[in-house]
Amino acid sequence: MSILFFFYGSIVYSQTQATATFTASVTIIEPIGITNTSNMNFAALDAKDGGTVILTPENDRITTGGIELADGAMVSAASFKVTGENGYSFSLSLPKGEYFLSDGTETVVIKDFTSNFQESTISSTTPEIKVGATLDVKAGQRPGNYKTLTSIPVTVNYN
Predict the structure, then answer these.
(1) Which residues contact 15 (CB under 8 A, 6 or more apart)?
(2) Are 92 and 155 in contact (CB under 8 A)?
């Protein structure tokens, strides 16, 4: 009788644990990137009584107030090329608030950034993103070549 009890007790204790295994994997994707292909240029204008100049992403200039547009040959919205993993969608963040262009003495405000961007997926045919903005020009603004005081950021992110 004691022999049966010994075997029976051993069987119960031999089933107290079990082991399984797994494998792991990862896919490293190409990092998203953005490169400036053209800087923004409102071209030449006459401030006269001041006002605003809207530069559209399509390189059109629209004025309000007393500003007169001069030669528009150099007009250019900012342009960007996006790179990354084919098939992945991404979003765009435009600058917020106001930035300043300066001739070293006076400033002009640039704000209200717009873009031709629509929800997009990265591929070899991803179109360039173009960014426009609005320029506030004071009446009698001093003539000169005005440039941004700091770089203006445009950010892309994978969705």
Answers:
(1) none
(2) yes
Tokens of 117: 């961007």
Q: What is the pLDDT along the chain (159 residues), one digit of tens a residue?
A: 555 555 555 555 567 899 999 999 999 999 999 999 999 999 999 999 999 999 999 999 999 999 999 987 899 999 999 999 999 999 999 999 999 999 999 999 999 999 999 878 999 888 899 999 999 999 989 999 999 989 999 999 999
The CA-atom distances, in angstroms, between 20 and each of 11, 17, 23 are 21, 10, 11
Residue 26: both structure tokens together: 């990862």
Contact, 54 vs 110, CB < 8 A?
no
pTM for the whole structure: 0.84
What are the b/e assignments for 126-158, b being 16+ CB within 10 Å? eeebbbbbbbbbeeebeeeebeeeeebebebee
The H-assigned helical ranges of the chain are 2-13
Q: What is the pLDDT of residue 2?
A: 52
Contact yes or no for 80/65 (Cβ under 8 A): no
Residues 114 and 94 sit within 8 Å (Cβ to Cβ): yes
CB atoms within 10 A of CB 35: 10
